[in-house]
UniProtKB/TrEMBL annotation:
Keyword hit for Signal: no
Major location (coarse): membrane
Cellular compartment(s): Cell inner membrane
Superkingdom, natural source: Eukaryota
Gene Ontology CC annotation, any one: plasma membrane
Keywords for this protein: Cell inner membrane, Cell membrane, Membrane, Transmembrane, Transmembrane helix, Transport
Pfam families for this protein: DUF6691 (PF20398), Sulf_transp (PF04143)
Mode of membrane association: Multi-pass membrane protein
Protein name (record): Sulphur transport domain-containing protein
Length: 338
């Protein structure tokens, strides 16, 4: 895929807005594999289902307001080129590995690296390495566009992209302030911030190109010069770096200050504090990386693509992404049992 620095950077900003806002307002980490596993097999909490609903609903909102033209690539077309067996194998590996390794790209890379979590630093290094090796050794169905082919959007589109990020941030905080003032606190009010943060996250994945397997493959083909697409490195600049700055700012405040100025009154600070690095973490991250390197999407993009397939009524894409998600859930279930 061509190098798309503007779209991917703005997508990274949207990922930052959603994950950092959720952390500051609820004290929770936006780790999608953990959220999916919890919703299906463990706590079955409402906030987890609200996030999953927001991720799947994102493409419907994007389509309704005409944002799909801003997305790089064609995620559903890329997804349909992947064979059923490969989807199933990769899904099991992604589900099993993300559960065993306590996270995936969202929880460990986007959120964990920004918190300088030792577990996330190690897990990210392991799964990225195994994904790169797998992507370079495996045969893939996608055509390759040289990395030096850059696609810069027109000025009007660039302006629109940054406007979307600004509007999303303003809308979230406006909604957050409104909901905080509402009494009594109903279930709908408690779960709405999660749903809305997931909508923004879904949009960030689509604009960055992370929902397109061919786009992710181009990034994982590093260090092959002809195949490598550096676009997703811009997620680090637009998402991880701002998250790190924001997390440092949040943690400087006392618990009383967090609760009075940012934390939603019905929530409590629950950011993971584990720092140990064990064999489960390393093995799980390695298995997850192999699965990611085989199919080039992970739990978050898969759920967004499910929503896109439903919106577009694309039955072939729906079968592909449903098969992957089903296999991923089976892998998570197996890891829970073991």
């Amino acid at each position: 895929m061509p190098f798309t620095p503007i779209q991917t950077f703005v997508g990274g900003l949207l990922l930052h807005i959603s994950t950092s806002s959720l952390l500051a307002d609820t004290g929770r980490v936006f780790g999608i594999s953990g959220i999916l596993n919890g919703a299906l097999f463990q706590g079955h909490e409402r906030w987890q289902w609200a996030i999953l609903a927001g991720l799947v609903s994102g493409p419907m909102i994007s389509s309704a307001i005409g944002l799909t033209s801003l997305f790089p690539g064609d995620a559903l077309t890329s997804l349909k080129t992947i064979g059923v067996k490969r989807l199933a194998i990769a899904g099991i590996l992604v589900g099993f590995g993300s559960k065993l390794g306590s996270g995936c790209t969202s929880g460990h890379m986007l959120c964990g690296l920004s918190r300088l979590s030792p577990r996330s630093i190690v897990a990210t290094g392991v799964f990225f390495t195994s994904a790169v090796i797998t992507a370079n050794l495996s045969v893939h169905p996608h055509s390759v566009i040289p990395a030096y082919s850059m696609a810069l959007p027109p000025t009007s589109v660039t302006t629109a992209l940054f406007a979307v990020a600004g509007i999303a941030a303003s809308a979230y905080y406006g909604l957050r302030n409104y909901l905080t003032s509402r009494h009594p606190v109903s279930v709908i009010i408690r779960t709405t911030p999660y749903f809305f943060a997931a909508l923004i996250f879904s949009l960030g994945l689509s604009i960055s190109g992370m929902t397109d397997p061919a786009k992710v493959l181009g990034f994982l083909r590093f260090p092959t010069p002809h195949d490598f697409d550096p676009s997703l490195a811009m997620v680090m600049l637009g998402g991880v770096l701002p998250n790190a700055i924001h997390y440092h700012w949040v943690t400087r405040a006392s618990e009383a200050q967090r609760r009075s100025t940012r934390l939603l009154p019905w929530e409590k600070w629950s950011v993971p504090t584990r720092r140990d690095i064990d064999r489960r973490l390393i093995l799980g991250a390695g298995i997850f990386g192999i699965g990611w390197g085989l199919i080039w999407i992970c739990p978050g993009p898969a759920l967004v693509n499910l929503g896109a397939a439903l919106v577009n009524r694309d039955l072939a894409a729906l079968r592909s992404v449903s098969g992957f998600i089903s296999a991923m859930m089976a892998g998570m279930y197996a890891a829970n049992v073991i």
